[in-house]
């Protein structure tokens, strides 16, 4: 492999690694909601539940979360593009991208509209009844999708560094012509 080829492969690996980190961080956010935030809120009265969830929805809109959430999508897409020549890593990266597009769609079509409805609601009892069950289900869906995408990216990293041998490196071990 030429220096240029090695450099391109290294850059693709770095982008793929960054995509895996961002996707893993995002999966961790959904996991934290599923195993701690939402079960803790479930113990609250309706008014407290709605108030805290509104606060969480406001606070999560910050550069740190957005860097991971949008970065996972953009970096996975960039990794898929950098691996466009093919190879085993490309298939796993494209699968991860498809899964993360689904995460983005679920978040945009389900969780965000539920958050917006909760923010606009005036009756905490009705607001919670309309919000809690669906939001938890959709959070679990995006959690599973993100985790699956993360697994695909880890697999892409594992197979991406493998090069099929072209034959023995030592000329003495090569078969005679």
What's the β-strand tally? 0
- How large is the radius of gyration? 22 Å
Biggest sheet features: none
Number of helices: 5
Classify the beta-strand content into a percent band. under 5%
What is the H/E order?
HHHHH
Counting helices, strands and paired strands, the structural category is mainly alpha
Q: Residue-averaged pLDDT, rounded?
A: 90
Terminal Cα span = 23 Å
Spans of at least 5 consecutive residues whose pLDDT stays below 50 are 1-5
Give structural notes.
- By secondary structure, this protein is mainly alpha-helical.
- Helices cover 81% and strands 0% of the residues.
- The N terminus is likely disordered.
In short:
Helix content is 81%, strand content 0%. With 177 residues, it is mainly alpha-helical.
Features:
single chain, mainly alpha, 81% helix, elongated, disordered N terminus
């Amino acid at each position: 492999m030429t220096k240029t080829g090695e450099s391109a492969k290294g850059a693709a690996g770095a982008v793929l690694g960054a995509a895996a980190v961002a996707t893993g961080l995002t999966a961790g956010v959904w996991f934290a909601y599923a195993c701690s935030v939402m079960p803790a809120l479930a113990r609250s009265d309706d008014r407290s539940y709605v108030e805290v969830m509104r606060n969480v929805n406001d606070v999560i809109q910050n550069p740190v979360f957005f860097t991971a959430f949008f970065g996972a999508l953009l970096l996975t897409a960039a990794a898929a593009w950098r691996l466009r020549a093919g190879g085993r890593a490309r298939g796993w990266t494209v699968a991860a991208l498809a899964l993360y597009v689904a995460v983005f769609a679920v978040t945009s079509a389900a969780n965000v509209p539920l958050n917006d409805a909760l923010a606009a609601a005036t009756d905490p009892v009705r607001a919670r009844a309309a919000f809690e069950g669906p939001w938890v289900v959709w959070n679990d869906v995006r959690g599973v999708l993100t985790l699956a995408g993360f697994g695909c990216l880890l697999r892409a990293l594992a197979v991406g560094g493998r090069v099929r041998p072209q034959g023995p490196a030592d000329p003495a071990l090569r078969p005679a012509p």
